[in-house]
Every structure is written in structure tokens, then in C-alpha cells.
Backbone:
């Protein structure tokens, strides 16, 4: 009850500027007189409580706690990853899905190249349409399974050493852009294509 009272004392917070948490000029105020420094200090002391509250009331990130997502210094230090992810997906799906379909017809032996040619030619707005994938020579209705398989195959091909687009990090098992990717004339547009695919996967809930 004491913690909830402390949270309530800081509501609502209305950002005026994006300046960081400082005592002198916070750029934030509330009817109760709470400042950005008050909020930041409370958040650091009760970070676990704050994130538990946001898991139960994610709508607060759109209203009283909007400063947490509008100011990077707050988001980075106060929000747990799962709350950041939930907010990202909520904002992502707040935009309407475009009508119609984005249809791809690809050969299994050339999934990367065929997908590259078709997706790079599609207008950005078309990427919000429902995706329908068909493998050449294979008849059937894509009820979701074919699309998932396409994403899986394409994800493997992105890291195919023959494309020289990514290399493993020296300090971890993570991948990073290959500084020698220039061996392919189209390496920049390949990276742009991969960015589009990742964005589409996030929008479709495939990542």
C-alpha cells in the first residue's frame, strides 16, 4: 500500500521537454509538484515494483508514464525488456494492416534471390499486407505453415557464408555485418532487403 501510494503521488506526469533527470531543470511537472528527478529517483529505488505495475497496466505507458518511452534515458535504465517488447508490439499493431495480400512465388533452390527481387520491388506500404508464399511447383493453400517455412529458410540463407553478409563476433556467438560484404556488388541492397524482411517478421509476429 505504501508503494502504491508513492506511485499515485507521481501521477500524472506530463513531459514538456526531453531533458534528462536533473534537480534543477527537469522539464517535467505534475499537479502534485513531482519533478522528473522525483520520478527517476523513485523509479530507480522501486524498479521492480514499477515494472510489475506496468505488466498489469501497460496502458500507463501511453498516459501517466509516457515519459518512460519518450525519453531514452528513462527507457534504458528503468524499463525491463519484457515491458519494452510489449510496448513495441502494441505500438506496432496500432497501425492498421493494409488490405489485400503480398504474394511471393519462389523457387526452393533460390529462396533468397527470388525473395530479394520481389520484396525490394514492393512499395513499403505493401509490407503491411498479409503475406502469401508459394513455392514454385508445389500447389496448395498457404494457411500459415508455408509462410513460416519461408521465414525459416530465408533466415538461414541470410547467414549463408556464400553471401558474405554476416560473420560471427570474436567475443560471442552473435552475428555482425561482415566488413568484407563489398565482395557482392549488391551488398547494400541485400542489407536493405534483410531489414525489410526483419520488419515484416516483427509485424507478422514471426520474430
Residues:
Amino acid at each position: 500500500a505504501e508503494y502504491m501510494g508513492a506511485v499515485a503521488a507521481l501521477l500524472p506526469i506530463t513531459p514538456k521537454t526531453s531533458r534528462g533527470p536533473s534537480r534543477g531543470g527537469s522539464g517535467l511537472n505534475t499537479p502534485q509538484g513531482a519533478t522528473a528527478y522525483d520520478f527517476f529517483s523513485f523509479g530507480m529505488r522501486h524498479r521492480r515494483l514499477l515494472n510489475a505495475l506496468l505488466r498489469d497496466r501497460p496502458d500507463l505507458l501511453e498516459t501517466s508514464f509516457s515519459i518512460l518511452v519518450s525519453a531514452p534515458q528513462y527507457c534504458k535504465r528503468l524499463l525491463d525488456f519484457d515491458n519494452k517488447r510489449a510496448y513495441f508490439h502494441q505500438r506496432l499493431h496500432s497501425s492498421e494492416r493494409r488490405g489485400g495480400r503480398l504474394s511471393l512465388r519462389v523457387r526452393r533452390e533460390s529462396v533468397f534471390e527470388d525473395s530479394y527481387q520481389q520484396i525490394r520491388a514492393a512499395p513499403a506500404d505493401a509490407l503491411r499486407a498479409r503475406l502469401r508464399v508459394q513455392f514454385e511447383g508445389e500447389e496448395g493453400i498457404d494457411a500459415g505453415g508455408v509462410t513460416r517455412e519461408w521465414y525459416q529458410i530465408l533466415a538461414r540463407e541470410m547467414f549463408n557464408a556464400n553471401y558474405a553478409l554476416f560473420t560471427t563476433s570474436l567475443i560471442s556467438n552473435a552475428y555482425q555485418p561482415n566488413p568484407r560484404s563489398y565482395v557482392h556488388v549488391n551488398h547494400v541492397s541485400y542489407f536493405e532487403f534483410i531489414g525489410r524482411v526483419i520488419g515484416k517478421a516483427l509485424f507478422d509476429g514471426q520474430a
